[in-house]
C-alpha cells in the first residue's frame, strides 16, 4: 500500500539526481586548476531522448498518452564530460563562474525537493494525529 502514490519515489529519484549533480559540480570546482581536466555534468536530457526513441508497451487510456514502461530506465541521468572546449592554457575547461552559478541553482533545487518531501510527511503526521 502506498500512501503517496509515486510521489515519494519521484522525489527520491530527483534527490539522487541533485546529489550526483552536486558531486560533479564539486569535482569540477576542485579541479579548476588541474591541467587537462575536462568539466563534467550530470544530464537528464540525453537519457530522455534515448528512452523516447525506444518502444514501450503500456496500457494507455488516451491516444495522446506517451508509451512508457515504468522502471525501464535503470538510471534517469548520466555524467558526461565536455571535451570540446578549453578555457585555460593548460587544457582545462572549467569555468569557475559557471560552476558556482550551477552549484547555487542546484542547492535551491535540492532544498525545494527536501521541502516538498517534508510536506508529504507532515501531511501523514497530521492524518495520524487526527487532524490536529
TrEMBL record:
Q: Where in the cell is it found?
A: Bacterial flagellum basal body
Subunit structure comment from the entry: The basal body constitutes a major portion of the flagellar organelle and consists of a number of rings mounted on a central rod.
Biological processes per GO annotation: bacterial-type flagellum-dependent swarming motility
Q: May I have one GO cellular component term?
A: bacterial-type flagellum basal body, rod
NCBIfam families to which the protein is assigned, alphabetical? FlgB
InterPro entries listed in its UniProt record: Flag_bb_rod_N, FlgB
Function field = Structural component of flagellum, the bacterial motility apparatus. Part of the rod structure of flagellar basal body.
Keywords (alphabetical) are:
Bacterial flagellum, Cell projection, Cilium, Flagellum
Q: Where is the Flagellar basal body rod protein N-terminal domain?
A: 24-38
One Pfam family, please name it. Flg_bb_rod
Q: Give the protein family.
A: Belongs to the flagella basal body rod proteins family.
Domain of life where this protein originates: Bacteria
Q: What is this protein called?
A: Flagellar basal body rod protein FlgB
Q: Which organism is it from?
A: Sediminibacillus albus
Amino acid at each position: 500500500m502506498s500512501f503517496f502514490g509515486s510521489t515519494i519515489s519521484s522525489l527520491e529519484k530527483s534527490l539522487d539526481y541533485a546529489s550526483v549533480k552536486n558531486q560533479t559540480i564539486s569535482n569540477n570546482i576542485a579541479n579548476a586548476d588541474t591541467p587537462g581536466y575536462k568539466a563534467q555534468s550530470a544530464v537528464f536530457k540525453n537519457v530522455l531522448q534515448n528512452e523516447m526513441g525506444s518502444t514501450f508497451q503500456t496500457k494507455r487510456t488516451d491516444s495522446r498518452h506517451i508509451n512508457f514502461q515504468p522502471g525501464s530506465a535503470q538510471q534517469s541521468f548520466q555524467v558526461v564530460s565536455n571535451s570540446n572546449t578549453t578555457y585555460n592554457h593548460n587544457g582545462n575547461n572549467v569555468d569557475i563562474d559557471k560552476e558556482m552559478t550551477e552549484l547555487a541553482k542546484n542547492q535551491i533545487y535540492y532544498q525545494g525537493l527536501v521541502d516538498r518531501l517534508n510536506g508529504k510527511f507532515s501531511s501523514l503526521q497530521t492524518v495520524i494525529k487526527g487532524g490536529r
